[in-house]
Amino acid sequence: MTVTKAEAAKLTQDMMLRGVIETVVKESSVLAVLPFMQVVGSALTYNREATMPEASFFDPGDIWGAQMPTWSTQTQELKIIGGDADVDSFLQQTYSDPNDLEAVVLESRAKAVAHKWSESFFNGDSGTDPKSFDGLRELVPSEQTIEAGSDGGELTLDLMDELIDLVRPGRPDALLMHKRTRRKLSSLRRASGNLLETDVDAFGRRALFYDGIPLLVDDFMAIDEELGSGSDLSSVYAVKLGSDGVMGIENQGIQVERIGALESSDATRWRIKWYAAMVVLSELGVARLEGIEGN
After folding, report:
1. CATH class for domain 2-50+74-292?
2. Residue that wins the pLDDT comparison between 98 and 271
3. Which of 135, 90, 115 is nearest to 237 (CA)?
4. Closest Cα partner for 36 from 223, 274, 220, 222?
């Protein structure tokens, strides 16, 4: 069974945990829509689809041969994401509503967890930081990557369409980009005589679409990437969400624990922890356009 974190918040009966999950979701455009698979154990071993099988035409009496897809076996360990939140006992006792103070402190820590997840989802590199998981920048294969130019280049609508066409079968579920790139894309659409389509998401916020595909904008996408001699570049990712593309994995979801009173200070400690990571289940379900200039 797979559920998004937004759905998980609705299912929990613990109001404090629900508040933490809802804060995490609102702080990350990806977590609002990314489905998560529950993992038993500390890692997931899976077969990643690399190529699809081909079909052929046959004459009567021809010998049929089996066409098999290409797979590669991958293993992704769960990573520990979280942090502690201390509630000062004096402030809690003198505050007009102690529960409000706890909520404020936990909300701040939940935001930090969401920010760390988003940063790792895009830019994570286990080679540089073994405690992290690999993000899209490391996982999208070269065959599914196109460049705006050998040293970077301007974003164009043709490049956007080429990116979308790399995801197959069908179309991507989302286009992931930085605000800077979204502004450029909006400018290109206006210049062509068309505007980005708009709608309202599950939180009542204005959402943008390109050719019917939702745009997910995240501040934690890097805008300092390098390509050739180019610098301060960014990327756009086209992704399918779920078993034919990108999915999150976790064990028991986001957890909130009351550690208790501290010996060294007059405070009570809470801990937010999450055993989680992300996986690309199909190389054909992701694509990257890199080397986009900021101007």
Report:
1. alpha beta
2. 271
3. 135
4. 274
Q: Which two tokens stand for residue 86?
A: 């201390």
- The domain spans of the chain are 2-50+74-292
Decide if 234 contacts 292 (C-beta within 8 A): yes
How many whole angstroms separate alpha carbon 52 and alpha carbon 50? Answer: 7
| Residue 283 in tokens | 């190389």
CA triple 142-145-146, angle to 5 deg: 130
Give residue-wise pLDDT tens across range 202-238: 556 677 889 889 999 888 889 999 999 999 999 999 9
Is residue 209 within 8 Å of 198, Cβ to Cβ?
yes
Q: Is the pLDDT of residue 5 over 60?
A: no
- Which of 122, 107, 112 lies closest to 220 in space, CA to CA? 122
For 258, residues 6+ apart whose C-beta sits below 8 A from its C-beta are 268, 269, 270
pTM confidence score = 0.83
- Tell me, what amino acid is at 270? W
268 strand-pairing partners: 87, 261
Name the amino acid, one letter, at 256: V
Closest CA to 135 of 58, 202, 220: 220
